[in-house]
Design brief:
It is built from ten helices and four strands, in the order ββααααααβαβααα. By secondary structure, it is mainly α. The chain has one domain. The strands form two sheets. The protein has a two-stranded antiparallel sheet. Strand 1 and strand 2 form a beta hairpin. Helix 6 runs parallel beside helix 9 and helix 8 runs antiparallel to helix 9. The longest helix is centred in the middle third of the chain and has 25 residues. The chain is globular.
């Protein structure tokens, strides 16, 4: 029989306030802290300052949260927003889209690179390690929230999510734990970036090379894993899911960027 995942997403309630402290929120806090230290490592190695690294904390956090939230709302759940507008603000309930997070981060990184007079793609390269960590840990948060689950399966890797299906455990169908698969994808991506950074000579690496690797590896993985994820209603009745269609533009951007950033080519990106 498939294992049951019925952990309450709420760890505890704040005394006197009644506000829930969720695993998702704690993990998201770890993403922000861990992401900062990875970005700081890269900025200092690139002869930047502590202020340059710290200066990205607020715009980076806003870029991730607002981009991911708006991406989820407009790409996946706009109907719910029309019935419950305040749901847009209840981020602690879950509902963040990685595609929107990428857009929000690119905008924030553009503003940051302009402020600190650092080439845009160099700034993006230095942030890819933080983004890979976030892509991994956020999916672990989704697992604790029993959301973004996989399709029903009779195979050996199924997990039952009573909180998602709103059924007693014994009546809950087994589903692919797609959140854990994406958690593994993020860790694999982080390993690829660390290997590639060393392989390309660290500070001698071509600008845009790590950004290209991030986009290619992550969105290729996302495209493939969408085949085992639950789809979002009738609008996803097409042969490709909405998540797969949204993965194609960043994947093509990554391939284009790799072409120009590849060592030995004359047309380097800035």
């Amino acid at each position: 029989m498939a294992p049951v995942w019925d952990i309450d997403p709420v760890i505890f309630y704040l005394p006197g306030l009644g506000l829930p402290v969720r695993y998702y929120g704690v993990i998201f806090g770890l993403v922000l802290v861990g992401g900062f230290f990875l970005f700081r490592w890269q900025i200092l190695r690139g002869r930047g300052s502590e202020d340059e690294a710290a200066g990205f904390i607020l715009p980076g956090a806003l870029g991730v949260v607002l981009g991911a939230r708006l991406g989820h709302v407009f790409f996946y759940n706009f109907d719910r927003l029309s019935h419950d507008p305040l749901w847009l603000l209840r981020i602690w309930e879950g509902g963040l889209a990685s595609h929107g997070a990428v857009v929000g981060l690119l905008l924030a990184l553009g503003l940051h690179s302009s402020r600190w007079k650092r080439p845009f793609w160099d700034t993006v390269d230095r942030f890819t390690f933080s983004a890979a960590l976030g892509a991994s840990l956020v999916r672990l948060g989704n697992f604790f929230n029993s959301e973004i689950v996989g399709r029903i399966t009779d195979g050996p890797f199924g997990v039952r999510f009573p909180y998602f299906d709103d059924l007693p455990p014994e009546l809950t169908p087994a589903r692919y734990p797609s959140q854990l698969a994406e958690f593994g994808l993020g860790l694999f991506l982080l390993g690829v970036l660390l290997w590639l950074d060393n392989r390309l000579g660290r500070e001698r690496r071509p600008r845009g090379a790590l950004a290209a690797a991030f986009l290619i590896v992550y969105f290729t993985g996302r495209f493939c894993l969408e085949f085992i994820k639950e789809r979002h209603g009738a609008v996803d009745s097409f042969i490709l899911s909405r998540g797969q269609l949204l993965s194609l533009p960043p994947l093509l951007l990554g391939l284009s960027l790799a072409w120009f950033a590849w060592p030995g080519r004359k047309g380097r990106v800035n």
